[in-house]
């Protein structure tokens, strides 16, 4: 089988144009979460994608080991989604979402309701995971106000948690690099991260650390439950480096929240629709939150979209306290909420998810993926490997002078060898599309095995 660097597509007449942007032309675009100076001195342009590959401007097929950004999990270039988008763009490119609707929004909401755990019944559409996080926080605060308990405003997140980049999500998030530039945002507290030395090189759910959930009791003791609105956690923290909850941890959080009348919010933007090998992290761990946030795979990354799914109790509280029936019960939303093209993409993506049994496919490949990734243990610089379902992280010992340099250099050398990997802080993160084959898993691990020891 050809390696990714050998797998070269026929030249495309547009490639030269994309590859030939001048340095001055590159300056107009302020790139997100990127070293703009380094990139614009050495651009890495992607001009196409299909299946498990990205196409570079120099005509190479680059093995995609992160499903884009965890969002193209059903594979790139799905014709079913492209055709649905095209049909919708011709028929209904936009529809105002305030006080008017279009059928696809209701169809997609019902599909999402059918897939999410029982008890999560009402779907509010957003345009991203970040918007979903902030929507969930506003929903939680408004819920308690409508219940006659307006003092319940405090939010509790978790160290190393990631809930997008808007003000609320950044506040409850716990990744230092995402917070330090912005000063005080929204008042919140944070539980400890669940990374423990005794869990290093765990395969799947680690054994130790359920006691960390009891820190929530300490925060209740500090603030009193009467002031706490919600606890917001990811079933598995992806962006911080695939941090898997210890056995029993999420169930314990649920118990404490129930005991003290605190809402539990699961951020399933990354874990939703199959990444763990189950439909959702909530499904895998047997814990149903009061609110779930979604995005990414809801459209397979083809069109920006997110969703917040709430319990019937939360929804009914808004409906029962809405005043005249023509007045918005929840004065919140976006110009592009339930955008028709996003809904068309979402319906096609849900067809793929269900008909191609994507969660089952991820679950079937997960044991092989786990075995191959853990074969990297013992390589120079590697201090931990963690995995769950079709997600894994390789944690590296920090560089003595620049702590985050090693992951960056590894990612750049992998790109040269025909593979895209996600690097962040001290980790290399892997989350390939669910359609990945064993040969491609072997390929990604072989490239990493070649590259990692060569880094200083």
From TrEMBL:
Top-level class of the enzyme under EC nomenclature: transferase
Record-stated family: Belongs to the class-III pyridoxal-phosphate-dependent aminotransferase family.
EC numbers on record: 2.6.1.18
Domain of life: Bacteria
Keywords, sorted A to Z: Aminotransferase, Pyridoxal phosphate, Transferase
UniProt-listed CDD domains: OAT_like
GO CC term, one of those recorded: cytosol
Cofactor(s), names only, from the UniProt record: pyridoxal 5'-phosphate
PANTHER family: AMINOTRANSFERASE, AMINOTRANSFERASE CLASS-III
GO molecular-function term, one example from the UniProt record: beta-alanine:pyruvate transaminase activity
Protein name: Beta-alanine--pyruvate transaminase
UniProt xrefs under PROSITE patterns: AA_TRANSFER_CLASS_3
């Amino acid at each position: 089988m050809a390696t990714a660097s050998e797998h070269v597509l026929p030249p495309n007449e547009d490639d030269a144009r994309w590859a030939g942007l001048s340095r001055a032309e590159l300056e107009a675009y302020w790139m997100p979460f990127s070293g703009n100076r380094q990139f614009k001195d050495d651009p890495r342009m992607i001009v196409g994608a299909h299946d498990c590959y990205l196409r570079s401007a120099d005509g190479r097929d680059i093995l995609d080991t992160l499903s884009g950004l965890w969002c193209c999990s059903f594979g790139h270039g799905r014709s079913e989604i492209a055709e649905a988008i095209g049909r919708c763009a011709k028929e209904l490119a936009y529809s105002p979402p305030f006080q008017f609707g279009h059928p696809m929004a209701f169809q997609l909401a019902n599909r999402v309701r059918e897939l999410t755990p029982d008890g999560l019944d009402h779907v509010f559409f957003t345009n991203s995971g970040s918007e979903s996080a902030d929507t969930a926080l506003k929903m939680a605060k408004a819920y308690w106000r409508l219940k006659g308990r307006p003092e319940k405003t405090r939010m509790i997140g978790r160290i190393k948690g990631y809930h997008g980049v808007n003000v609320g999500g950044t506040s409850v998030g716990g990744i230092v690099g995402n917070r330090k530039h912005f000063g005080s945002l929204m008042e919140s507290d944070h539980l400890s991260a669940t990374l423990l030395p005794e869990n290093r090189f765990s395969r799947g759910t680690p054994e130790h650390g359920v006691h960390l959930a009891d820190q929530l009791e300490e925060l209740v003791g500090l603030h009193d439950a009467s002031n706490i609105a919600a606890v917001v956690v990811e079933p598995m923290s992806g962006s911080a480096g695939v941090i898997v909850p210890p056995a029993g941890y999420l169930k314990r959080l649920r118990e404490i929240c129930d005991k003290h009348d605190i809402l539990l919010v699961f951020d399933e933007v990354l874990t939703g629709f199959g990444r763990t090998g189950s439909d959702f992290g909530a499904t895998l761990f047997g814990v149903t939150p009061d609110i779930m946030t979604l995005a990414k795979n809801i459209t397979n990354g083809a069109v920006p979209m997110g969703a917040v799914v709430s319990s019937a109790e939360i929804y009914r509280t808004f409906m029962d306290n809405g005043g005249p029936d023509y007045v918005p019960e929840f004065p919140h939303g976006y110009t592009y909420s339930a955008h028709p093209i996003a809904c068309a993409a979402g319906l096609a993506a849900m067809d793929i998810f269900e008909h191609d049994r994507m969660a089952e496919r991820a679950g079937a490949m997960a044991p092989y993926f786990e075995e191959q990734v853990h074969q990297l243990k013992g390589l120079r610089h590697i201090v931990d490997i963690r995995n769950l379902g079709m997600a894994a992280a390789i944690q590296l010992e920090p560089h003595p002078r620049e702590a985050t340099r090693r992951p960056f250099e590894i990612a750049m050398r992998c790109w040269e060898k025909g593979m895209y990997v996600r690097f962040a802080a001290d980790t290399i993160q892997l989350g390939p599309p669910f359609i990945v084959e064993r040969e491609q898993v072997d390929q990604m691990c072989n490239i990493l095995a070649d590259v990692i020891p060569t880094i200083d």
